[in-house]
Hints:
Elements: E1 10-13, E2 26-33, E3 39-44, E4 50-53, E5 58-62, E6 68-70, E7 80-83, H1 84-89, H2 106-111, H3 118-123, H4 127-149, E8 155-163, H5 167-171, E9 178-180, H6 185-194, H7 207-219, E10 228-233, E11 237-244, E12 247-256
Antiparallel strand pairs: 1-2, 1-5, 2-3, 2-7, 3-4, 6-7, 8-12, 9-10, 10-11, 11-12
Helix pairs in contact: 4-7, 6-7
Amino acid sequence: xxxxxxxxxxxxxxxxxxxxxxxxxxxxxxxxxxxxxxxxxxxxxxxxxxxxxxxxxxxxxxxxxxxxxxxxxxxxxxxxxxxxxxxxxxxxxxxxxxxxxxxxxxxxxxxxxxxxxxxxxxxxxxxxxxxxxxxxxxxxxxxxxxxxxxxxxxxxxxxxxxxxxxxxxxxxxxxxxxxxxxxxxxxxxxxxxxxxxxxxxxxxxxxxxxxxxxxxxxxxxxxxxxxxxxxxxxxxxxxxxxxxxxxxxxxxxxxxx
Length: 257
């Protein structure tokens, strides 16, 4: 079935701005009302940072609004509309300020076929750079886990790596791999990470920030379609395995004595 394309609101900037040069017309990602009842617009710049754009700087050249979904819950109950495909892509949103997370929006702008700047290509689309960010986050997170649970008889650490084959991992398994629906990938990944914080299925308190940060960093690796997701358990760890472009990306939650 062909997807129906709805018209979206677009704007054209009145003057040359340093971060709005790649396009003639820019898509309005969301719009709503402030507490003061004044209207605000959310527009992505050339580095895909989504934020406020001042109405005095642009003209609305297409005011069509049928491609938006009303999401007042993201604006403390005040009027707010979110572009339909962003609404579908960012099911994790709890308020509209969270939209400006470049790691979570990679696939969204890739599907929109936005022109990519050199800086964005180096920082956001480069896998080595993304893996380095994940490694850095894990150094901090594992230290945090140690400080939280150092006197417990059982605690867990986290490790992330990629492999060309799962043969070695499958040899060590103690049960059959548990398949996960790709559509549930982000939710299941967050739950998997949260368990390392001793928080059951949902992280709590300050741990929530760390869990969501790691989940977001890992998710940015997969700008295109994920082939499969599974969990594989051995005597010493539980692995969350993402198959992507003929490679296996593995997040291991391992026992620490």
